[in-house]
Each structure stands twice: as structure tokens, then as C-alpha cells.
Amino acid sequence: MFHLALGSSNLLESPAMKRRTLLQSLPAIGLLPTAAWAASQPSADPTSTTVYELRVYHTFEGKLDDLLKRFREHTTKLFEKHGMKNVAYWTPLDEPAKSTTLIYVLAHPSREAAAVNWKAFQDDPDWKAVRDKSEENGKIVEKVDSTFMVLTDFSPAK
């Protein structure tokens, strides 16, 4: 079972967990450092159009290290190149998700900008080369969940 570090109940019963259930099960305290960082940014004012994107990558068995290496060495830089702000990255502490899951948050200037950013990223020849090289021994990512979010008016400033 997958246990979050701050709770002891079995919050996620299977790797095929639905995004909504995952989001409902994440303890708010785990996201507070991200919320504090985001709220401290000039673009995080309540009238801003900044959107945050929560992404959960589910890798094929034995492929998480390959994904982490790709993000560490290439992907985060390519995100920045295409206007996506890296907010934070997490890996679960407990199995089974510990071996197959990467969770992260990106910030985009707006929802529209996010669509443009992702299109530019996916069309980038550098990204295609990195992806192809990292997948020489097989696909890495089995499934991606994406949820767009906005800060609430009561998000902490710091």
C-alpha cells in the first residue's frame, strides 16, 4: 500500500488510482511550502492569471530512475526555456508508488500560455532528441495526470 509520510491510513489502494482521489488524499501540509513559495511570487497576486499545473507521472516498472535522470539533466531546463516555471518535485516515500511515481508542479503565466508552452515544448527538437535517447531501452512513462489550479485568496503570503 502507498502511505503518505504525514498519515497512516491507506490513502491510495492501487497504482491505477484516479487523479481526483489522489488530489483529495494529498495532505494540505505537504503542499504548504509550494503554496508559500507561489504566494510570495509577484505573479501570485489574486488578480493574476497565473495557473499552477499539478502533474503526476506513473512510470513503467523499473523506469523511475530513468525518468528522474531525464528531468534532472534535461527536462527542467527545457520547461524553463518554454516559459514553464519549475515550482517543486516530489517522489512518494512508500511502495508501491515509491518505485513508479513522480509528482511535480509547474507555474504558467495563464491557462492559454500553458497550452502554447506545452506545444512549443513538445515540438522542440532538443526535447525530442532527449526523449528518444532516454527511451532507447523502452518507454519510460506509462501515464500522466495533469490538473490545472489557481491560488486561493487565502493562500499564505510566506
Tally of DSSP helical segments: 5
**Rounded average pLDDT:** 81
Q: How much helix is in the residues?
A: 25-40%
Question: Spans of 5+ residues with little confidence (pLDDT < 50)?
Answer: 1-17, 39-47
Main β-sheet: number of strands, strand sense, barrel status?
4 strands, antiparallel
Describe the fold and architecture:
The protein is of the alpha+beta class. It is 39% helix and 20% strand. It has five helices and four strands.
Task: Briefly summarize what is shown.
The protein contains five helices and four strands, in the order ααβαββααβ. The protein has 158 residues and is an alpha+beta fold. The N and C termini lie far apart (34 Å).
Highlighted features:
four-stranded antiparallel sheet, 4 strands, 39% helix, alpha+beta, 5 helices, disordered N terminus, 158 residues
Secondary structure layout plus pairing:
Elements (H helix, E strand, L loop, with lengths): L18 H7 L2 H13 L10 E9 L4 H18 L3 E6 L10 E8 L2 H13 L1 H10 L6 E9 L9
Antiparallel strand pairs: 1-3, 1-4, 2-3
Helix pairs in contact: 3-5
